[in-house]
Amino acid sequence: MGLGNVSEGREMQEGSRNGGWSGNGYEIVRLCGSMSLKERDGLVRTLKTNLTEVGLRRMAISLVGKVLSPKPVNRDVFRGVMRKFWQTREGVEIESVRDNIFTFQFGNMEDKRRIISGGPWSFNDALIVLEEPEGTRDFQRMVFNKAEF
């Protein structure tokens, strides 16, 4: 048994004591390298081919908004208040993205249009600027500098 094998044996023993992790990155690379999928393994999972279409439909009934406040907004209170004010027919999913930026996923286009046309909206005396997402546009590039009055 060579020196490498003794070391591997000790790490394997340590690995069994540590829940299977040997701590040796080279061992993990070696094991991953030995893994392969063969044609006989067969189909594992079929992905939906219309994911882009579904994503575009969801984006069409979505808005991104920013509460223009120097203070952080209480996310849970914001969600509850906006749902109550907007009273959408099919509900609205409100998710916090970061720094007072939220996404709004409506159940239908009519609710989205009503919210846009019913603005401007505010929360705790701070203006909420709403934008429609475009493609794979990143939230960091949205400027939130226009609101219709």
UniProtKB/TrEMBL annotation:
Domain DUF4283, chain residue ranges per copy: 62-131
Highest classification ranks of the organism: Eukaryota, Viridiplantae, Streptophyta, Embryophyta, Tracheophyta
Source organism (scientific name): Acer yangbiense
Superkingdom of source: Eukaryota
Record-given protein name: DUF4283 domain-containing protein
Pfam families: DUF4283
